[in-house]
Structures are given as C-alpha cells and as structure tokens.
Amino acid sequence: MAPIVVEGVVFDLDATLVNLGGFVEWKEAHKRAVEAYVACGCPEDLIHRCSEKGLFSMLNLVRDELSKTLPSSEVERIQLDAYRVVESCEAEGVARCHLMPECLPSLEWLREKGIKMGVATSNSEEVAERILEIKGIRSYFTALVGRRTGLRMKPYPDQILRCFAEMDIDPAMGVVVGDSVRDVRAAKSAAIYAIAVPSRFTKRRLLEEAGVDRVIEHLGELPMVVSELNHGKVTS
Fold first, then answer.
1. Disulfide engineering: 228 pairs with which of 11, 82, 183, 233, CB 3.0-4.6 Å?
2. Could you give the C-alpha distances from 118 to 23, 37, 70, 79, 200, in angstroms and in order?
3. What domains can be seen in the chain, in order of their start residue?
4. What CA–CA distance (Å, rounded) separates 151 from 147?
5. Which pLDDT band, with edges at 50, 70 and 90, does 232 fall under?
C-alpha cells in the first residue's frame, strides 16, 4: 500500500471507542435471535447451523442464505425482527458502558487536525446513537452506520464504505480503527488502511493473518500513527 494522507477515520464502536459488550448478555441476545428467526418461519436446521458460528456471524450467514431464495424485502423484514431482539439486549448495557482509554484526547486531536470521523458498527444504530450522546462524543462524528437491514455487517465492507460515503471521504484517503479481526477484514477487503486496538479477547496472530497494517496498544497512540501516515513515514 502506498503512503496515504488521512482525511477520514472510521471507528468501530464496541471495545474500540466504548466498552459496551462487557455489560450485554450476549448469550441471551443470541438465544432471542435464534427464536426470532424460527418464529419468522426460517428452517430450524439452517438457523441452528448458522448459530454455531456465533451471534454476529449468524446474523450475516442467515441473511446470505435467505437472500438466495427470498426477495430482498422479505429478507430485510426477517432481519429486522432478529435485529430488534438483539437491540433490546444491547440497550441494557448503555447506562453502564464507558469510554475506552485515551478515547477523548484522540478524538479531540483528530478534530483539531480537521480529520473527519465516523462510526461503523455491527451494534444497533439506535443504541450507538444513545451511547455517543450520553458519553458526550456524538459531535465528533460526521456519520454513524450501525446495523441496517440493507447492509451486510463486518467482515463485509458495506458498513465501512457507506460510512466513508456519508462522510464524503474517499476511502483511499481514510483509515479504519477497530479491535477485531472482523474490522480488519472489512477494511482490507476494501483496500483501506487498517489499525487494530486489540481487546483482551483478540488474538494478534489472527489480526496479522487478516492483513492488519498497524497494531496499537490504546487509542492514545492513534495520533502518532496518523501523523506518521500524513508525513509519509508509514507504509505497508
């Protein structure tokens, strides 16, 4: 990848900007999503097979499978039912979540440099809006793209590309910052520079296999990386 000038940064939300997941009952969310799919008439064998891959992988896989046989409007209706029950669980963590270390100083530095920011998250868009407002950081972001029935979630690049489009930034002039392999794969599938801030659950070997360009310990290191990129000191 050639040197870039960073005009925009798209962040993941959970475990990148805030710690939401630590206060969400994900097993319950997974269970409710399975029940929602079955209630919609989806084949139980399909749902349980996809379920084995984990909650967010299941949401993507079921969408992909249903799209093979159903019209898009029907797929979106079914997805919306599943998304709503997951959202109800995510909402329970809003009041308890908190900003990740060095989040606020890094956002302020980026804003001072005139770099646009956005959020692309597999979490509920409504929940994400509430979190950013409550934590006092919504004004930093030009765009917020959460779970939308018309977009595939990470590791597909759809949410990230939509976020850059809503920011009016060429993805080639941007970077993606996230904590997971899914974030890195989504960025690299669109040829975007990927910076990882690993959570305690993230395996660095898998980040490297996914093609991560830079790994940092916390968001406080982000200004240094962006500065190096804008001065042509970092390539990959």
1. 233
2. 23, 31, 32, 24, 24
3. 8-20+96-230 (3.40.50.1000), 25-91 (no CATH)
4. 7
5. confident
